Amino acid sequence: MAVTAIGQHGTSLAAAGSIIRDGFHPSSKPEDWLGDGVYFFQDAPQRAREWAISRYNDDAAVVEASIDLTNFLDLLDIEWTNWLAEVHDQYVAKLKAEGTALPTQKGGAHRLDRAVLNYAVDVLKASGIEIAGIRGAFTEGSAIFPNSALFNRSHVQIAVRDLAAIKKARIIFP
User: Among residues 30, 13, 33, which one has the least CA distance to residue 133?
Assistant: First the structure.
């Protein structure tokens, strides 16, 4: 039985129309936390709306879709964490041997996370395992109240690599 998630993708109104007509286009920006893919907030339409408005103002839009999580590298459970730590070490050793500087994390640009996750997907692909996407949880914002571990902008993010995993896209905002 396939596991699905509902994701919200913040964008501009023009891009939302293009997505509905022509489909999504994966991102490959250096600051993409989960590596290459189409990015969604999971079950967070207000967070996606806020994100879109912060970038596109009055031209903001949110596209919602059902996402098939089959063949995902899912970081919500511990299944992948030890392996991912080993892959990180392999990646660091590879860059060191090449004399290449390690990508850095800086503010909202998680270049090292992105590089390690893209490398991990390549390692899996080389062994015959195709990864359709990656899902992870992120703590962002400020504590909701003093001494709280709950933060006001925390969210689950999904980066879909295999566009066939995205189903039933529709505009939900505006």
Answer: 33
The rounded distance, in Å, linking the Cα atoms of 146 and 154 is 16
DSSP result, 39-107:
EEEET-HHHHHHHHHHHHGGGEEEEEEEEE-TTEEETTSGGGHHHHHHHHHHHHHHHHHHTPPPP-EET
pTM as predicted: 0.93
Q: What is the pLDDT of residues 51-105, one digit of tens each?
A: 999 999 999 999 999 999 999 999 999 999 999 999 999 999 999 999 999 998 8
| Confidence tier at 1 by pLDDT (50, 70, 90) | low
Terminus-to-terminus CA distance in the chain, angstroms?
33
Structural domains of the chain in order of their starting residue, each with its CATH number: 4-173 (3.90.228)
> Among all chains, which residue has been given the structure tokens 């039933």?
168
Question: Which phi and psi (to 5°) does residue 50 adopt?
Answer: -60, -45
Residue partners of 73: CB distance under 8 A and separation at least 6:
80, 117, 120, 121, 124, 131, 133, 134, 135
CA–CA separation, 16 vs 99, rounded Å?
Answer: 42
Structural tokens at position 109: 């640009």
CB 59, CB 171: distance < 8 Å: no
